[in-house]
Amino acid sequence: MHTITTTRRGALLGGIGLLAAPAIGTAQQVRTLRLNHTDTDVGARNEAANLFARRVGELTEGRFRVQVFHSGQLANDARSLEQVAVGSIDLAISGVVTYATHTRPLNLIALPYLAETYEQGWRLYDNSRFIAEQKQALIGRGMRVIGDWEAGFRSFSTKFALPSPAAARGRKLRIAPVDMIRWIMESQGWNPVVMPVTEVYLAIQQGTVDGQENPVDTIFSQRFFEVARHITLSNHVYSPLWLCVSERTWGTLPENARAALTQAGRESGQSNRQQVASNDEALLTQMTARGATINRPDLAAWRAASQGAVARARQDYGADTVDRFIEEANTLRTRA
After folding, report:
1. Distance in angstroms (rounded) separating the CA atoms of residues 205 and 160
2. How far apart are CA 280 and CA 278, in angstroms?
3. Cα 281 from chain centroid?
4. Residue 61: phi, psi to the nearest 5?
5. Would you kindly state where each structural domain of the chain is located, as residue ranges?
6. Please, which residues bridge with residue 242 across strands?
7. Dist. CA 39–CA 223, nearest whole Å
8. The overall pTM is greater than 0.70
9. What is the spatial distance between Cα 270 and Cα 266, in angstroms, rounded to a whole number?
10. How crowded is residue 294: how many other Cβ atoms within 10 Å of its Cβ?
11. pLDDT (tens digit, 9 = 90+) per residue, 123-159?
């Protein structure tokens, strides 16, 4: 298990900037690609982004460099994907749920409790025909997925104790701009409020919202536990990340550079998956030591409280479409 510390990350990553690439001749032109994400400089996402950048430099023998911008310095998640779609940003890493604004059926990947373990989630994303179709559809929206990365299972961090869904009724909860997430929260009794993740800490601190929902790694890296100290591990949505490249940028790359980006995306994604999956308990321990309270509830009540979102999805997307995807997820989840 890898223990995450700010000191180690600072030493390894050096924060934002160009990663070292192999020496190149002075006459050889170097092209820089800009990569944006909203994780902080101590998050697992940023560490993997820097690994991706280093591998691109190595695989292209220094002809391409990736400049990593963390903490949403170029744009928040939603805006980042918009800029990738038009070619203003070359690369972005964002939660898969965020991509649903560009291909609406992708909302279904946020159906509650599709996976119970990381291994089940990986099987789903690596083998689902439905998810592969949505990746293909994104190409027509101006972005191409080149890496399956990890964020984890979405849970709550709130300013108040959350022993059951009944305690959520009428409370204001920050959510991402995703229909399925909103339907789940409404089904559980929350009053959902949409805002960029980069604004959430202050919103909780000022009382604009009573809490938020995100994976453990995000709760830690964004320091939400400092202002919303009650962490409830509801695990209501498996919520990984995708690394995408602008289709406009992709169209200008030579074949060997495309191969390098694809290989680097795969390698950094595999590393990121393993790190996040192995780090949850270590991060929860660190947050507990800094004043957080961890609640590990019986998930039966949360499953039951989320079923209204499934009914709403059947109304909006058609029962056949929803049920086929749920059946596919169930089959992959139980595969040995």
Report:
1. 13
2. 6
3. 18
4. 55, 40
5. 6-152+240-279, 153-237+288-334
6. 94, 148
7. 11
8. yes
9. 6
10. 17
11. 999 999 999 999 999 999 999 999 999 999 999 999 9
